[in-house]
Specification:
Helix content is 29%, strand content 23%. The protein is α+β, with helices and mostly antiparallel strands. β1 and β2 form a beta hairpin. α1 runs antiparallel to α2, α4 crosses α6 and α7 crosses α8. The two termini are 33 Å apart.
């Protein structure tokens, strides 16, 4: 990492004059990272906030974003979303069943939908000290799904709500379970969360199985909790605490 002029010395000071280590995707942000961002001018005039010992930061160097790749089995991986993912989003989200089983994905799904969503996610990522939403990628690096806590503001809460979807050609292979398990370890590590929740539409049994295999507990049925296509629908509420899955079962 290249430390901006004038900030390197401040960061070195916190380590007794030595160079501060670069935070890996497996560890929470260290004090040097927080000092670096503290001295960095916030874009758009947005204020920074301090929650516990973590800053909700205004931007993240691209070197850190690109380094945040979480490995899955068989060459699959999780990594931050990018503008190059637009075509894959449009291709995979032409499956009506994905839209039926989720709340925010429209059908039919257009290039404009993908552009709007990517703009929101990339903009949000740039305001966080570490990514909160990831593309699920095949061994060739192409997006085949998404997993994450889209609107979570890092450092502002001990909990976040999880969402995910997977392209139809990859269903029934345990890949979504693998991705959610991997994200759980990331959420309870670098994101510093103590609780994850997830809401599933009652007819989406496959999603329930993914959560249950990961250790989520069914916590109740929320009646008429969401409006979908002009109809009020229930939601099945699941929750997971850090101590429930410490450690998470090994990936297979």
């Amino acid at each position: 990492m290249t430390w901006p002029s004038g900030q390197a010395e401040a960061c070195k000071a916190s380590y007794g004059g030595s160079n501060p280590p670069v935070t890996s995707p497996e560890a929470p942000l260290d004090v040097a990272q927080r000092v670096l961002f503290l001295f960095r001018p916030p874009p758009n005039g947005k204020p920074r906030h301090l929650s516990s010992d973590r800053l909700v930061l205004s931007s993240l160097p691209s070197s850190l974003v690109s380094a945040t790749q979480l490995e899955l089995s068989d060459g699959f991986s999780l990594s931050p979303l990018d503008w190059s993912d637009q075509d894959a989003l449009v291709e995979h989200l032409q499956v009506r069943e994905i839209a039926q089983n989720t709340l925010r994905i429209p059908y039919p799904y257009t290039s404009a939908d993908a552009e709007t969503w990517l703009e929101q996610r990339i903009s949000h990522r740039q305001e966080q000290p570490t990514p909160v939403t990831f593309a699920v990628r095949n061994p060739d690096g192409r997006l085949i799904g998404v997993v994450g806590a889209e609107d979570h503001e890092v450092g502002t809460s001990h909990r976040a709500n999880l969402g995910y979807w997977l392209a139809q050609p990859y269903w029934g292979r345990g890949l979504m379970t693998n991705a959610v398990q991997r994200y759980v370890r990331y959420a309870f590590g670098p994101l510093g969360l103590a609780r994850l929740t997830a809401e599933v539409l009652p007819w989406n049994e496959a999603s329930c199985r993914v959560l249950e295999k990961t250790g989520f507990r069914y916590e109740g049925r929320l009646r008429n909790h969401h409006e979908k296509n002009g109809v009020l629908v229930d939601a099945l509420h699941y929750g997971l605490l850090r101590e429930d899955v410490h450690p998470v079962a090994p990936e297979r």
